[in-house]
Design a protein that fits this description.
Number of helices of chain B: 9
Number of helices of chain A: 10
Shape of chain B: globular
Number of domains of chain B: 2
Structural class of chain B: alpha+beta
Distance between the termini of chain A: 49 Å
Radius of gyration of chain B: 23 Å
Helix content of chain B: 10-25%
Number of strands of chain A: 24
Oligomer: heterodimer
Structural class of chain A: alpha+beta
Helix content of chain A: 10-25%
Bound molecules: zinc ion
Amino acid sequence: MKEKILQTLQDLRQYALSKNYEVTLSYHEEDSYLMRFANSAISLNTNEHLIRLEITAYQDKKRASYELITDLNKLDEMKAGIDTAADMVQYAQPLNYQPTIPIYEASYEDDSAFDINLAEMSSEDKLEFINQAVDGLETDKIKLSGIFSSGANTFALINTRSPHTLYFKSSDAQITLVLAHETLKWEVTAEQSAWNKSNLEAENLHNELAYLIDRYENDQPQQLPLGTYDVVFGPAATAEMISFMNWIAFDGGLMKRGFSFMKEEQIGEKTLSTQFTLSDDAAHLDTFPFKRDLMGLERDKTQLFKEGVFKGFIWSQDDADEFNQIATGHTVPHKSLVVEPGNMEINIIQELASKPRDKDILYVPFLHYMNIVNPSKGIVTGSSRFGALLLKKDGSIIVPYNVRLTHSLLDIFGDKIAWLSNERVAYNVSNSYGARNPTAIIVPKFMKVNDLEISHSNDSY
Amino acid sequence: MRDNLKQQIERLKAQNATYVDVRWYPYEETNYLLMWNGNLKSTVAAKESGIGVRVLYQGAWGFSASSDLSNLSAVFDKAFENAKAAAERVTFPVRLAEKDSIVARFDSPVLSNPFDISLEEKVSFLRDLDAKLNQTNVFQRQSDLNFVRKQIIFLDSEGSEIEKNIQEVFSSIAVTGLDEEGNMHDRKFILPRQGSSRGWESIDRDLFNENADRIVKELNQMLKADQCPKDDRSVILLPGIMYLQTHETIGHALELDRILGYELAYAGGSFVTLDDFGTLRYGSEKLTARADATLINSPGSFGFDDDGVEAQNNLLIDKGILVGAITGRQMVEEANAKAKREIFSGSSGANRATAFYRVPIERMTNINIDPGSDGTLEDIIKNTEKGIVLDGDRSWSIGSNREQFHFGTEMGWLVEDGEITDVVKNPTYRGSTVKFWNSLTAVGDESTWRVHFVDNCGKGQPNQIMQLGHGIPVCRFDNVRIGE
Ligand SMILES: [Zn+2]
């Protein structure tokens, strides 16, 4: 299959050259499977096999793209697409900068995060995995929802500047299990991300769900009083906040457009907690990494924040071209964001709950529907969801109704950080909008942040 | 091709599939242009075609999609296999509400086809607009054009055969500026419904020029404005935020699949229960809301949904009382059975898929609020003692059961004793859904009613982005917390 893809790209390149076109070609193939659960049943079992070809034509400072969903047998359709892009570019308006077309100096292939056993896992195996993970936990009232999403993703690129190609292939799985009470409406969750089948562990999911259900079944729910709490975030919540940083903190192009809370003059300054170190590191297979970017640049580890010090902005090629910067290897469908671990030996919810404490702790595993209230100040808002707990200082546990947190990321990742777990987990943040783009962020299992105010407290789940 | 598809449907029926349908997209084409600070950043055309097959077997759904039409049997077989695997875990076997088998056709109303307009003309439109937006204190300026056309052939095992030719037009302009402290503020204009057709004729240069001047002027007012106060007062929502209020706290909350727990793994549930239909006082008597897929010229109007059910105009909330939901064929059967009463007499025709490769789910059509009898915007302001007029969506966040929300808006105008006093920046408001709608004390008349288009509503797994409309008047709500 790889040979056929690369040969097709070579054929298309030859076609473009024969017509004196300047083009880049990007091939994306997804083989996607999703088993969805609701009300303890499989509510949908679906698969899509889609091949997308994106053709960008250049003419000096002009650029135009034509994208098609196609298949490898339709060479004529793809050639016609190249003609269309080449026709469109004549009527585009010149950019006020010169867009870079990469020159790949050698061909590059990476399928190190591809596992055929995961990519081709059968419906039966997935169902068995799910059945193990929720074994004995469903009742007449407590119903399973969730997904088992898995698939394979292939990218291949070529352009008219050189005959060399880039080729990436990975496999991925995102498993989300939710057990929700039909009438009381509480919901608890456990999730897993994997790039190979042997990483799948139903038992961990089962343990986490069993513990949370026990709490939610047996402890009295309560509307929390408004005020300030010491909060422990679970990996889903931390990863969600890091993905907002990915957007409004260190992206050079967005900073230049005013959509960032970090400023150029802050490079080299300590702006966050000394306990906080964040990098983009394609060495982690758990992040479904691109070890080269789509311009062919090697993706060495980039430090974004080191012990709280802001190390600088990253530049995609187009932003670098526009703003006169040097591209940093970040022209990628997704980055490989990695938060360094801390030294607290608390890595599962039971350990957190049983650890003696001198103050109440609000455990927020998940932040639902986060959004940016003020990008210049880094203020985001979101509601707790999926199994929050109030761990009282006397050792008892209360299950709280959901609460809203509205805070600046500068605050949350600033000096209020009390500790980070010494173990980490890859949290899958793939959103399945449009083309498959599996993405995971590696975060400490827990992060404790002191003195955070809750701005709204629900009176029901 | 149609005959081949019909044969495939018959083949699966003969193998004991309960129901089979196929959506064949001979083509779906888009054309998107984005101008940003004078740079034509995106000049994109796209084309796709393919089929999506849905099979019901022993109460469970299987779906499969492919762009490769050279082996139709393989796609149908895969969908059937997926249904058989899903049938291993069934708790409430899927039943489909009765419908008529329909042979019909729907065409979006278009006078001037945007795909016949040259790229040069489209670029020239954006270039002129960009120049118009390039004024004092405008830091970033954006303008875009987005056209879609698609042909969909729907065939099912109950004898329906529907052809749809859908066209969409979306366009917007936006400006941002930095205040003294370097904080960003923005103002935008999204093309609302213009007249009764949705072709290139919607792109009215005068309308865009007028609004370009307005948003730049308002941005400049905002850059000098004070911070929005934090207090409790009446909020008067203009269509640019009223649409979002309706979308998030009526639209999504009344999708029947959410109510029945089908979105708990992702988007969330709803505070609404089946017992609430016919009794819940959702809002004040001034609130009448409907799902109207028959409205001419809107992305929420599509003739027939992806169950093959004809578009309808249904009440959701009647003078404050909850009476209806956004439904497809499957969910109404399950809801009636679980409620042990007939809440719904049939599908409301709102099962929609965003592409050939996605499965249909309950989606908003045009979720509208009827105009009221409280006069014009000026009348409402005049009758407000202490309030704030809000416009423009900036951020939205809402609880997973749609019970409480926090919305940031672009711009606010304080109202004291019936008059606008000051512009304020960073206005936000929050509330609890039912309490909020019950505090609705004024609904503007027809002169305040606009149809706002939404082109980015996300739901479902795999995720689907859907296009729809909201026809909304200006509304006032009392005792609302602002400025947090
Ligand atoms: Zn939506």
